[in-house]
Amino acid sequence: xKIGEFTEKQVLDLAEEAYEKGDVEFEIIPDKCxxxxxxxxxxxxxxxxxxxxxxxxxxxxxxxxxxxxxxREKNIxxxxxxxxxxxxxxxRPKTLPLMPCRFPDIDIDLSSFFIKxxxxxxxxxxxxxxxxxxxxxxAFYDTPLETILKNMGKDTVIICGTxxxxxxxxxxxxAFERSFxxxxxxxxxxxxxxxLHEAELKILRRGFAKILSFEEIINKL
Length: 221
Description:
single chain, Rossmann fold
């Protein structure tokens, strides 16, 4: 095929193939990996507690716990992220309070949420595991995560947690832009709706990350 001879169907077929079956080629070296557990905190995981609850995140706790324990056994660092009250909330994007995800019309006092940033008790950090208190969706935005990973000698991040189409995928994009290799857990990340989850996986698969299942990640490590 020569330049200038691609039909619309051909380019769309190429795009579809990459969205559905694309696989970024890089070697997974366990010693170079770190597991990033995104926002598995009470506000998103504790059933029935807040309007921010992600039911699928709760259902995935046992699988994520196994991934965390396996990583610990393999001496792969586990790094957690949470939303919490940092710098009197002055480190947030100014437009964040304007977003519909803040539920401006709901009749409930939301002021007690996202203050301490407590990881769900079943998968809580141990020993000296690091918790990144982040001010926005992506774990690299205004945090020391990049410096921490480089000081650890890690060039590959494994992402699990919630939400697939917000904090998890934003972190994957930010990691990619910083030249980290990204492994994204297809069944250890969650969204409110399966169609949004699957759509985000397709986008990440085509341009940002290697999409692997829980079992595939375990086998690679």
